[in-house]
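Raw record, unedited: Trehalose-6-phosphate synthase
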Amino acid sequence: MALDAEATHTRVLVADLDGTLLGGEPRDRQRLFEALRRHPEIVVVLATGRSLESVRDLLRDDPLVPSPRWIIGDVGASVVDAARMTRLDDLEERLRAGWPGAGPVREALRRFPRLVYQDVPQDGRCSFYLAPEDLDDEVTGAVEELGCSWSYASGRFFDVLPARAGKGQALRLLAERQGWPREALLVAGDSLNDLSLFRLGAHGVVVGGAEPALAARVPVGGLVEISDLSGAAAVTHALRRLGWLERRTVVVGYHRPPVHWRDGRWQAPSSPNGVLPTLRAALTDEGLDAVWAAAHVGATRPPAPAPELTGDLSLSLLPVTENRWAGYFHRVCKETLWPALVAQPHLIEDRPGHWPDYEKVNAAFADHISSLAATGATVWLHDYNLWLVPELLKRRRPDVTVGLFHHTPFPHPDVFGRIPAADRLRASLARLDWAGFHTADCADNFHQVLTGTATDLPRVGVHPLGIDHRAVAALARTRRPRREDEAVQLVLSVERLDYAKAPVHKIHALAALLHQDPALRERVRFRLICPPPESGIHAYDTTRAELEQAVAAVNDRWRTPSWQPVEYVPHNLDFAEIVDHYLAADVFWVASLADGMNLTAQEYVTARTATARPGVLVLSRHAGIAQHLAGAALLTDPHQPDDLVRTLHEALSMTAAQRHRHLTEVSARMRFPAPAAWARNVIAAIRAARPVPGGLPEPRR
């Protein structure tokens, strides 16, 4: 059914009573009660084995029971509007279809003396006490012959129910009636009669001290947390984990979290630069009430990161299965969209079998972000991985302001048009309020792509990202790298394995240079630090094979007993080690076919300048940062092999004095905002954005 914005913005807590909401220490129950009172937007549904009469008495006598909006009672045979204390007859009729009545059930089961009738108020069910050793096929078979279902919980409660009844079934009908999506539900329970709630695909928490059989049988997939906390404390923790107890005025949507889950623990990035550390630093600013929404891949949801890793930043993870992630990220993002972004349209692969994965992850992100955003919130999305979110989110939440920053290049309209789903993506991007880029060229491409799609186009801003110069400079001053041979000039590249970085082009250029000037043998070495992509990505397999072949060929052709021209480092290094390589390198070589701000180039210049070392930056004309340096760097064109060779030779031929002047000029032009300031500027631009006729760019800052 179509869901309106109010329905999709709803958050619904569905919780059992005994052992769950009533479980734990009084102070924990008090905290949960007060938290729910502060957040009236959270709808409370009591899902209990108790009858309506029993629940009424409890609400009257126990002041710490949260006020429910709805009650699912009698183990799912009853559904009550708690505001009016009236039954939902239409739902109960469906749940109780075929119910023979308590009298016939008791009469049919009278032959089992081990079944002891519970003398408590009950409606639409027939409940007994039964010892675990007495639960057998004879008893359950007799129930099924009556056309009924049964539930057994806590090692003693045997409930005979209508065939279609159960807590999960009742909640499903109620959710359909109210228009609640699964992503808006948090279910909590402690016994086996709660199991059907956890099988709906909603968020869930099994509280501490629950039946072991419940924890063993809940679906595995990251949505359900098995808590060590008791009762109300576990429920409160789950609400906080989902971000429901905070009204967030800023929601960041990024496909990855700011810390990495690796080897069974959270780890912070070693570099202070890049989008993850930049956003983490900015969002922990006390003036930003923000939450970071990110995907977590795997069957088990990890624990919350330690505060020393994230500071005050709230992290809300969206679970994604490994298969879904593979189709979404490894296939569509890397094989369909990435080639267009880096101006390699001939490499675009149409993946119709995996496009639904991209759609579903984006839809899940839209729902997740919607559940985290306060009314009128600012939503800051990042990169092409979430290109479908703007349309989906705006459809659900027209009240929020949505911006998207592209850290990658943005393709020319002719290239964008070759993406198989170009029209769908274009329609979604047109729903943005604001779009940001590192360069004016990319902003212009975006504007051209969207021209004609809507009357009011997104505002556009150009905000080049810098690095944390102080952190890099301070670290560089503490390092003491050793040069193996001062007579050998070191050329360095630091980049992930990606055909867009043109690593094979550089190896071929070095080979050509040695062929043209054999005197450079034993006088130059190229060190390529090139870690592999995430496991499962195959878009760069050909590049890897060609690179390894090219490295082997040039080394075999030119090596001597004490020297080889290429040192290939195909793994990640700590940032401190990277800085050591910056300090050792005479030339930093960037030859990207297309690129953003290339933060490694900025790090190289900063590290060398901070330690008064000369150096040379050879920079691709197609890197975004090149547009901001006004020709200070030595510019090269990787599409022209001769130019790559010529520019590298020019760099190697520069004197120490020339290199000092060169690096001083480059450094003087690298005056980009510090990362935290950059992020605050972007958030301010999104907050101020409103669609304007013609999509006029925002004023230059």
